[in-house]
Structure formats: structure tokens, C-alpha cells
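User: For my dataset I need records formatted as: sequence, then C-alpha cells, nothing else. Please produce one.
Assistant:
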Amino acid sequence: MLESPVLVYNFTVEDYHSYYVSSSNVLVHNTSKAKAKKKSKQSGKKKASNAPDWAKHAKYNPDKSADWNARNVLNQKYGKGNWSDKTNTEYSKIKKWLQRSKGFK
């Protein structure tokens, strides 16, 4: 029995069953009698989050298409035409990200 109350926290870390806490690297373990529901994952096609990080912070023109914006941001970064518009390139990843995550046409 403790002499005085001690503040404690009770929480569950989603997606991790065990994890380290504090600068002492204490290993703690989630326990629960009820099984946590797994989140359904969006398909890679629907999610389309694999655009380069630098492109996610660029400014885009909402009045223009995803194609125009992708080409524009690449021209600004690499110079006009100094990039590829083939499949699985930065161009295609940015264009898909703009269409699927940001609603550009």
C-alpha cells in the first residue's frame, strides 16, 4: 500500500502490442480481454499516398487539372521538361496523389 496516491495512466497503443516508454526504455505490454477491431486498410490505389514528401508541401492551383499541377511542380523543381512522365515516376505518383487524395480532376 502506498502512503499517498500516485497518478497513473491507462491507455492502449494502437497497432503495437509491446512498446518502450521513458528514457529508461521500460518495455510495457498491452493487455485487454476484448480483442481490438482491426482497421480495414485502403488499397494502395485508393490511398495514393506515395507522392514524394517535397511534392506534398508544394502549392497547387485548384483551378487546374492534376496533370497540369504535376507538370508545373516538376518543371519548377527540375526545369521545364527535365523529368519523365512515364509510369511509376514522380510525375505519375504526384498526379495520382492529387487525383485520389486531393480531389483534382
